[in-house]
Write a structure and sequence with these properties.
Number of domains: 2
Number of strands: 14
Radius of gyration: 25 Å
Oligomer: single chain
Distance between the termini: 76 Å
CATH superfamily of the largest domain: HUPs
Largest sheet: 5 strands, parallel
CATH topology of the largest domain: Rossmann fold
CATH class of the largest domain: Alpha Beta
Strand order of the largest sheet: 3-2-1-4-5
CATH architecture of the largest domain: 3-Layer(aba) Sandwich
Low-confidence stretches: none
Number of helices: 13
Strand content: 15-25%
Shape: elongated
Length: about 400
Amino acid sequence: MTQVRKVALAYSGGLDTSVILKWLQDTYHCEVVTFTADIGQGEELESVRPKAQALGVKEIFIDDLREEFVRDFVFPMFRANAVYEGEYLLGTSIARPLIAKQMVKRALETGCDAVAHGATGKGNDQVRFELGAYALWPEAKIIAPWREWDLTSREKLLAYAEQHGIPVAKKKGGGSPYSMDANALHISYEGGGLEDPWWTPDDSIWRWTRNPEDAPDQAQYLTIAYEQGDPVAVDGERLTPYALLDRLNQLGSLHGIGRLDLVENRYVGIKSRGCYETPGGTIMLKAHRAIESLCLDREQAHLKDELMPRYASLVYNGYWWSPERRMLQALIDDSQRRVNGEVRLKLYKGNVYNAGRRSADSLFDARLSTFEDDRGAYNQKDAEGFIRLNGLRLRTAAKRDQT
């Protein structure tokens, strides 16, 4: 057993991390510092303080990271239009590097010689937390109880909690059958009936969004203003990053936008099925691509689309702090310098539609694209030589193949 004097634990106050707290004390005979991140999950986080105090914790940190999360993690990712495996907007993935950063910060501030987390040995989060910790604290010792202990089921965890007098909150109606994770960008659901990929979840699974069939019969229009690739205002009202995303979440939820049922490939090699709700993020992605369509040069836009799957995989697999992600981010951010303007969107029964876009930095020239008289802005005869030169290799190959 590694000798540990003091450990910083990423602590939610739920069953798993409450058991982990006591297990660390008993197994490593060490002092535990708890760190809880408020990244917009909407829970009453102050309730974790008395739980940690009841287990003898003296240093308890509950950090409001909502603005930092959206400003420094969500927005940069959306500049890249990042989507994993064609559908997933990376809501869980993008939260982990910030949690890892703050966990390491609190560990170093309080003189810890190790950090601990509650991620299982089957999932992606263990990779994300630990790669983040190593990138920010190369000498870090990491304790992952799920890879060490024999408490391999919820029943064993509950028995351990009862045996050691660990307070565990009872959920009304027995609680949700799903493993859920929420933050300002999304909420996810795994486990339960979702472990059968043929099973259709009933409407009770969804916590944030209305069923699109029950959404308002009247469409709603909104306008999002962009500056250097980031949204800064909704319907003319400037908002902080977190407040803006929260506003879009409310609007998207009302109109049943952002539901996803996905079978994805985890980094460790397991296929898993999850359901996600990302209402505000779904709106932002549509709006950002719309403003880019005006402001980005063709080759800029195409290169970004080629790089996006690589960027998305880096975020999904836990490489946010890697040099290659930083390098891609620098390229992406450079492309956003002239991505300014406004996008008008229509929200209606689970869908987001473009309804207009405008920008002082637009590359759209109506004189060039018009079907009417362009008054000499474009010489159509130029296209003949352009086509013949581009067709030269095709003609050459065709002649060869005729012989």
